[in-house]
Amino acid sequence: MAETGKVKFLWRVLLCLITLTLLVLCVNLAGPMWDQLDMTTSKYLQKQRQNSSDAEFGRHDRLLTAAENVTSLPSELRTILSSRDSCTKPVTNFVFIKVHKTGSASTAVILIRFAYNHHMIMCYGNRGMRLTFPRTEIYKSSCARWKEFGDRFNFIVQHTVFNKTAMDRIMRPGTKYIGIMREPLSHFRSQFFFFKDPRRYGLRKSRNPLGAFLDNPERYELKVTKNLTRSRERNKQAFVMGFPPDLLGTQDTRLMDNVIKQLDQWYTFVIINEYYDESLVMLRRKLCWGLFDILHSTKHVNKQHNRKKYVSLTNKQLQNHKRINTIDFRMYDFFNKTFWRSVEEETRKGFWEEVTYFKDVVKRVNTYCSKRKKEKHLQIPTSKWNKPFSVNGNFCKGLNRDPKVWGRKLFHQMVHSVKKKKKRKHL
Ligand SMILES: *[C@@H]1O[C@H](CO)[C@@H](O)[C@H](O)[C@H]1NC(C)=O
Ligand SMILES: *[C@@H]1O[C@H](CO)[C@@H](O)[C@H](O)[C@H]1NC(C)=O
Ligand SMILES: *[C@@H]1O[C@H](CO)[C@@H](O)[C@H](O)[C@H]1NC(C)=O
Ligand SMILES: *[C@@H]1O[C@H](CO)[C@@H](O)[C@H](O)[C@H]1NC(C)=O
Ligand SMILES: *[C@@H]1O[C@H](CO)[C@@H](O)[C@H](O)[C@H]1NC(C)=O
Asked: Rounded to 5 degrees, what are φ and ψ at 275?
């Protein structure tokens, strides 16, 4: 009797010890996770206690938005983050309407990096940066290996022409559209040389091909096209942004403005090239992204150096340029105004303070990235707009990666994850 009592007692002690060890292990493992969770939760509550008209933060959910890489957080934390309200959840379904020569390649790098970090499924065309442009339609079958990637896509970044009906059909519900525009004259100067137009119009030897062309555009255009509204020198930004091709020949400014207003309804945001950093901060706010997500290289992708580009133009030449690009001008004007209206709205919410801060971080990151011999990490501490994060050499590689290479990288990630899923099914 005494013997069995002793054994029972010993067993109990042993069980207790095992339980204790397990508990300690658990706490150790879960500790960091719960610390993080606690920190965020308490910050959130603290934030809630503060006045909701908090001018510095704009909306108090900004603090949580700053979770720079939401996918890498523990799932419990993610649930808390995303259950708050719409702005705690970054937009991860979007199409970028990539307009040539507007700074869109630099933007593409930012967006593809984001898509890569969020494991997004891209409709990918494997012909460099071209997907369907200049065609105005798009189908599932326009996307490489489309059958393998489930029902719908949630990202497009390569060159297309905006067509909401067609794109809505192949994209996940709720997909947002992002456009980009550039002041039409500087856009014209840029594309004229980029697409080797002087040669096209027999102006290669001219001292001032741009001026010569603009003295009498029709004379040159009719050499290469029968239909002037299709000339590549006319309203190309409007065309890519979705202005209906059969209306491009109109002279009716009221009609133009109505169409532009309709397009405006469909775009969540249009980046204005002339105000690039400001646009990115606005984009971040509209899509509920973190500051980390919009970091960009200060080196321009596709920068050209051609003195002939910067000649000054006569009044007549300027007028001719305006005359053949009326829609682009009106559209740019409209979206520029829209942009500045949102800036006005966001100014109360610390917009300019954030722009200044963002520019500084971009500078620091680019300086770090341009060093041959760099420290292992560059730490960016907490601010009103971001949680602390760090960048390293690998990040720098991505910062300056050609968008084509980035695109392929994302595509490989997609293919790889599909393969992994299939394998799991078979097991
Ligand atoms: C809090 O907000 C209310 C209404 O927006 C305002 O009247 C009040 O002055 C604010 N209080 C503080 C402490 O900022
Ligand atoms: C974000 O998190 C995912 C998943 O943990 C990870 O694969 C990816 O590298 C992270 N991205 C960055 C920029 O830290
Ligand atoms: C846009 O796509 C729809 C659906 O495919 C098509 O019917 C329409 O003609 C397209 N618009 C243009 C301008 O091609
Ligand atoms: C010229 O092209 C536009 C746009 O494709 C089209 O709507 C128009 O009918 C064409 N005009 C002629 C004369 O072919
Ligand atoms: C854009 O709009 C702002 C505000 O209305 C104006 O000051 C600026 O000149 C415009 N930019 C261009 C390039 O037209």
From this structure: -125, 65
Which of the listed residues 340, 341, 342 should we mutate to test ligand 5's pocket, taking the one with most ligand atoms within 8 A of CB? 340
> Mind listing the pLDDT tens digit for each residue in 17-65?
777 767 655 544 443 343 333 334 334 434 433 333 222 222 333 333 3
Distance (Å, whole) CA 281 – CA 58: 13
Rg (CA), the chain: 27
Query: Do 148 and 182 meet the contact criterion of CB atoms below 8 Å apart?
Result: no
Which pLDDT score, from 0 to 100, does residue 424 have?
A: 84
Write out pLDDT tens, residues 248-284.
999 999 999 999 999 999 999 999 999 999 999 999 9
- For the record, the structure tokens of 47 come out as 């934030």
What is the DSSP track for 90-117?
Answer: ----EEE---TTSSHHHHHHHHHHHHHH
Evaluate: CB of 394 within 6 angstroms of ligand 2. no
> Under a CB-based contact definition with an 8 Å cutoff, are residues 368 and 361 in contact?
no
- The pLDDT tens digits of the residues spanning 359-406 come to 999 999 999 999 999 999 999 999 999 999 999 999 999 999 999 999
27 touches 21 (CB < 8 A): no
Ligand 4 atom with minimal separation from the 246 CA: 7
Identify which ligand lies nearest to the alpha carbon of 377: 2
